[in-house]
C-alpha cells in the first residue's frame, strides 16, 4: 500500500491578509490526494513544543479564506537558529535549537513542511532544508519585497487600506489648510507608499529607495501654496530616510526579534515641515491597520493559488523551492535564489516615472 503523505504547514513573521486562504487551499488540496495535514502553531514553536500542533481537515478550514490573520498564530521571534532561551540563572541567551526542530519533524513522520512567510521565514526554511528537512516556501509579505515573484499576497489589501485612508484625509486636510503626513509600512521597499500614494493623489511620496531632502519637500509644499493649494498630503514609508540620515529603529536591539522595529519618520517629518513652512502639520501612522481585516479578492485568489501550487510541488518532490507568481502562471523557484535579497522599487520603474510625470514630489 502506498504511504500516506503527512504534510506540515506553519506561518511565520508578521501576519498578512491571505494566510488563512493558503492554509485552506493546502488542506483541501492535500486531502483530495488522501494526505494528512498538520498545522504548526506559532511559527516553528510547534516543532519545539509539539503540543502546539493541530490536525487540519477540510471541515475545520472551510471558508477561512475570507478571514484575516492566521489560525495557526505567528511570531517575529521564532527563529530556531537564534532562539531566545531563559537559562537557570534567569538570564536570556540566544541558542541554536534547529536540530531539535529537525528531530521532532522526523519523529512526527512529516514528509514536508510548507513554510509560509516573508524574507526571514523563508531563510529559516532554506537553512532547515540544508539540514535535510523537505520544505516548500510560500511567499507572504504586505511589503511585496520578496524576489522572484511579481507580487505577494497581503500587498493588495495593505495598499487598498492605505489608499482609503489617504482618500479620507484629503477632505480634512483641505478643510483646515493642513499638511497631513501619512506613515505606511515598508522597511526596505517603498511599494506600499508608492502605490497607495499615487492612487490616493498624494502630493509627496517618500520611499526608502530614494533618500529625501527635507528642504525639497518643504519647497514643494510652499510651491503648492503659491498655486492656491493650501493643504498637502505626504505619504512616507516607515523605512524612508533623509539624505545622509538614517532610518528610525524603535526596537533598540530587542532580543529574539528578526527585524528592526521601525516607526517615527512620519512624526519627524511633521515637525520639520511645520518648523520650516509654518503650516499646521499633523502625522498619522497607519501601522498594523494595514495588516488587519479581510483580504481583498485579489489576495484571496493569489493565496489560494499559492497553496494549491505548494501541494503540487510536494507531489512532484520539488523540495527546497518557493511558489512564485509569474503572470499568468504560478511557478517554482529555488529558495537559494530568493533569500538574502530584497525586491526594491527600481529607480526607473514605470510607477516612479508616472509619479514624477504627474507632478508628485519624491523629495529628490
Key terms for this structure?
10 helices; about 375 residues; 2 domains; Rossmann fold; elongated; alpha/beta; about 20% strand; seven-stranded mixed β-sheet
Mean pLDDT: 92
**Structural Rg:** 22 Å
- What is the spatial order of strands in the main beta sheet? 3-2-1-6-7-12-13
Q: Structural class given helices, strands, pairing?
A: alpha/beta
Describe the main β-sheet briefly.
7 strands, mixed
How many strand segments? 13
CATH T-level topology of the largest domain: Rossmann fold
How far from one another are the termini? 66 Å
Order of helices and strands: EHEEHEEHEHEHEHEHEHEHEEH
CATH architecture of the largest domain: 3-Layer(aba) Sandwich
Which spans of ≥5 residues are poorly predicted at pLDDT below 50? 252-257
Q: Using the coordinates above, name the CATH class of the largest domain.
A: Alpha Beta
Q: Tally the helices: what do you get?
A: 10
Number of domains: 2
Q: In percent terms, what proportion of residues is strand?
A: 15-25%
Overall 3D shape: elongated
Percentage of residues assigned to helices: 25-40%
Amino acid at each position: 500500500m502506498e504511504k500516506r503523505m503527512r504534510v506540515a504547514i506553519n506561518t511565520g513573521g508578521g501576519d498578512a491578509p491571505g494566510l488563512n486562504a493558503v492554509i485552506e487551499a493546502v488542506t483541501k488540496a492535500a486531502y483530495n490526494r488522501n494526505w494528512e495535514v498538520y498545522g504548526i502553531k506559532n511559527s516553528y514553536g510547534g516543532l519545539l513544543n509539539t503540543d502546539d500542533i493541530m490536525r487540519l481537515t477540510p471541515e475545520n478550514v472551510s471558508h477561512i479564506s475570507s478571514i484575516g490573520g492566521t489560525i495557526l498564530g505567528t511570531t517575529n521571534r521564532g527563529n530556531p537558529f537564534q532562539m531566545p532561551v531563559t537559562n537557570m540563572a534567569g538570564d536570556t541567551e540566544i541558542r541554536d535549537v534547529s536540530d531539535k526542530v529537525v528531530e521532532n519533524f522526523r519523529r512526527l513522520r512529516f514528509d514536508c513542511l510548507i513554510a509560509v512567510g516573508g524574507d526571514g521565514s523563508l531563510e529559516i526554511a532554506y537553512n532547515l532544508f540544508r539540514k535535510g528537512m523537505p520544505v516548500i516556501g510560500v511567499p507572504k509579505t504586505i511589503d511585496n519585497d520578496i524576489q522572484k515573484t511579481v507580487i505577494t499576497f497581503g500587498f493588495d489589501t495593505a495598499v487598498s487600506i492605505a489608499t482609503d485612508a489617504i482618500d479620507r484625509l484629503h477632505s480634512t486636510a483641505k478643510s483646515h489648510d493642513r499638511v497631513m503626513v501619512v506613515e505606511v509600512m515598508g522597511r526596505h521597499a517603498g511599494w506600499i507608499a508608492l502605490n497607495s500614494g499615487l492612487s490616493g493623489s498624494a502630493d509627496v511620496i517618500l520611499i526608502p529607495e530614494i533618500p529625501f531632502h527635507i528642504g525639497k519637500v518643504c519647497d514643494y509644499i510652499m510651491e503648492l501654496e503659491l498655486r492656491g493649494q493650501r493643504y498637502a498630503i505626504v505619504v512616507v514609508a516607515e523605512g524612508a530616510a533623509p539624505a545622509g540620515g538614517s532610518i528610525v529603529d524603535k526596537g533598540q536591539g530587542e532580543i529574539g526579534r528578526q527585524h528592526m522595529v521601525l516607526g517615527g519618520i512620519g512624526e519627524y517629518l511633521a515637525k520639520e515641515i511645520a518648523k520650516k513652512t509654518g503650516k499646521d502639520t499633523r502625522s498619522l501612522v497607519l501601522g498594523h491597520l494595514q495588516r488587519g481585516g479581510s483580504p481583498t479578492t485579489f489576495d484571496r485568489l493569489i493565496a489560494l493559488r499559492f497553496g494549491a501550487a505548494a501541494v503540487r510541488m510536494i507531489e512532484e518532490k520539488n523540495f527546497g523551492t518557493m511558489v512564485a507568481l509569474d503572470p499568468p502562471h504560478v511557478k517554482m523557484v529555488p529558495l537559494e535564489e530568493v533569500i538574502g535579497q530584497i525586491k526594491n522599487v527600481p529607480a526607473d520603474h514605470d510607477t516612479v516615472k508616472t509619479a514624477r510625470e504627474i507632478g508628485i514630489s519624491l523629495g529628490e
